Amino acid sequence: MKRRDLLALAGALPAWARAAGTMTLPGMDLHDPFIVTDTTSQTYWLFTKNNPTVSGSPALGVMAYRSRDLQHWNKPELVFQLPADSWANDGCWAPEVHRWRGRWYLFVTVHNEGLALAEPSPVPGQRSYRRSTVLAVADQLGGPFTLVRGGEPVVDKSLMTLDGTLHVDAAGKPWMVYAHEWLQLRVGAFAAVPLDDELRATGRPRELFRGSASPAARPQQGQGIIVTDGPQLYRTADGSLHMLWSSWGDDGYFQTLSRSPSGELFGPWEHGPVWLAKGSGHGMLFKTLAGAWMLVVHRPFKNARGKLYDVRELHSGFELVRQRVDLDLDAAPLPPPATAAALP
Question: Which residues, other chains included, contact 196 with Cβ-Cβ below 8 Å and sequence gap of 6+?
Answer without folding.
Answer: 174, 202
